[in-house]
Design goal:
Blueprint: H1 6-9, H2 17-26, H3 30-33, E1 41-45, E2 51-59, E3 66-70, E4 79-81, E5 86-87, H4 89-98
Antiparallel strand pairs: 1-2, 1-5, 2-3, 3-4
């Protein structure tokens, strides 16, 4: 990061949209393919075994791909969670879209 005076900011040009596209592709992972996105509000399992309202604040690849911040406890109880530890209608909608189409008949 570098601090610039306001006069210098006018001389800086915005990057081309094509340059930003590879960065978005690099962050895609199992969590983003499942319909989750940063800022999505959902229900998350806490250490006490209860489900609480939370918001997705970061995403990554791996066993625990979603970082959530519990409502009312921002910054204090942020945790990385697995896909089994979160509930959201966005997850259910993505699961329905990815199921293969079933054909008619007895399955012979």
């Amino acid at each position: 990061e570098m601090w610039l005076p306001p006069v210098a900011l006018k001389a800086i040009k915005a990057p081309a949209p094509a340059a930003a596209a590879p960065k978005a592709k690099a962050t895609a992972g199992p969590a983003s393919e499942s319909g989750l996105a940063v800022g999505l509000e959902l229900t998350a399992l806490f250490e006490d075994g209860m489900w609480y309202k939370a918001k997705v604040i970061k995403m990554r690849k791996g066993a625990k791909p979603v970082m959530v911040s519990y409502s009312g406890h921002e910054g204090v109880c942020d945790r990385w969670l697995s896909m089994d530890e979160i509930r959201s209608k966005a997850l259910k909608a993505a699961a329905v879209d990815t199921e293969p189409a079933k054909g008619k008949g007895k399955g012979k």
